[in-house]
Every structure is written in structure tokens, then in C-alpha cells.
Amino acid sequence: MRKIVIANWKMNPQSQKEAEVLFRMIAKGKNFKKVDVVVCPPILYIEKLKKISSKIVLGAQNVFYEKKGPFTGEISAPMLEGMGVKYVIVGHSERRAKGETNLDINKKIKSALSSGLIPIVCVGEIIRDGNHEYFNVIKTQIEESLSGLNKSVLPKLIIAYEPVWALSTTLPRKDATPLDSQEMSIFIKKIISDKFGIKTAMPRIIYGGSVDDKNCGELGALVGGASLNADKFLRIINIAENK
């Protein structure tokens, strides 16, 4: 299975011009044979960015689960599909912190899939406690977020493990290691096989906690701050290519 490295620009850069400069710098990187590269910019930049390079696929940072209606400020999956977006992030820890639930995420996943989008489903514990309760946190997030899905759609999903303790600016923080992400990748696969069947084809599982060139490891990555620096982002892609 091909690896994937995804840039989540969040609410950056501050202008269309800056976004285009950054996108062009990333696009000038060499053609990678083993890695798919996705950039998720603020939605208002997408129309112009997609004209710059076809070798970088575009994604969105969020989606609403209804197709249309009186939902001020929301963007539907059919709208994203119509813009040429292929991927969409759902359940990011920043949105969970604002009250997004596993039920919301479940509905967003289903809506995205129905429009042919590939959901990037974020899961992750706030703290890594000594009693290993964090495994139950991840188990609940996975089971509730994927509830009601047919196992045939699982290969169309990407699951991004983003431990909040590795990226928090307010909670006790420590750096995650490649071993942490490998351990959780194995655990997530077990949850899915227990839920859907031992022979189930798996989603791609990637790491997303303050990703840099030291912790991107064997998996693909959902990259936040480092994706706003073209050199750092290309270095992460290159590591994924050569692991």
C-alpha cells in the first residue's frame, strides 16, 4: 500500500499570494514514486491552487454532514467534490476540543464517502495515562466513528493517529516516538479486525502529532506546522519515500 503525506495548513497562510508561493515550492519537489502528497489549505485558496500543479492532490480541512440547507458557514461534501477536492479531514483534535463528537464524525464520514471523497479520520487520546486507559479512548473513537459502515469502504479511509499530548500547548506535552505510532497502528488494526472481521482490508493508518523529520517514522503523516515550510515538508515526504 502506498504511503501518504498530508499537509494541514489550518488557518494559514494569510493571503492567496503566500499560499500560491508555498504550494509552488512544494510542487517543485521531485516526483515521489511511493508516496501520495496531499495539501489541505483554507478552502478559499483551493480554486487557484488546483491550477498550479496536478501532481499534488487537494483536500479540505472539514466538511458538514448535510448536503444542503440552512447551515450558515458550513460546506457540504457535494460542494467540495464539485471544487475538485479529493480528501477531507474529519475529527481533528482541534474540532473535538470545540465539542465535535464521534457521532458527528460518523455522519461526516458517511457524507464524504457518499460524494466520493476520502475521509482522513483523526483519533487520539488527550493524555497517556499509566493505567493504559488511553487504549479504551481510541477504541471508543474508532468504533463509534466507523459505526454503520460497510467493511468494503474501509480501504477508502485514512486514519490519522494524533495524540493530543504530543501537540498540546496547554497540557503536559512530550514528543511522540515512531514506536508510539507503530504501537497504536497495530492496536487500531486490531480494533477494526475485531469489529469488521479478521480478513477485512484495512484503511491506511498515518501519524499526526506535531510531525517532524524525527517522528514521521514508518507510517505516512498528517503534518501541521511543518507543512508551512516547504523544505521541512519535502524532507518529511522524502523520509516516507525511503523508509
CATH topology: TIM Barrel
At the fourth level of CATH, the homologous superfamily is Aldolase class I
**Average of pLDDT:** 92
**What is the class in the CATH system?**
Alpha Beta
Helix count from the secondary structure assignment: 8
| Strand segment count | 8
Characterize the structure shown:
With 243 residues, the chain is α/β, with parallel strands linked by helices. The chain has helices spanning 16-27, 46-49, 77-83, 93-96, 102-114, 134-145, 178-196, 230-242, and strands at 3-8, 35-40, 57-60, 87-90, 118-123, 158-161, 204-207, 220-223. Strand 1, helix 1 (16-27) and strand 2 form a beta-alpha-beta unit. Helix 1 (16-27) packs parallel to helix 8 (230-242), helix 5 packs across helix 6 and helix 6 crosses helix 7. The two termini are 13 Å apart. The mean pLDDT is 92.
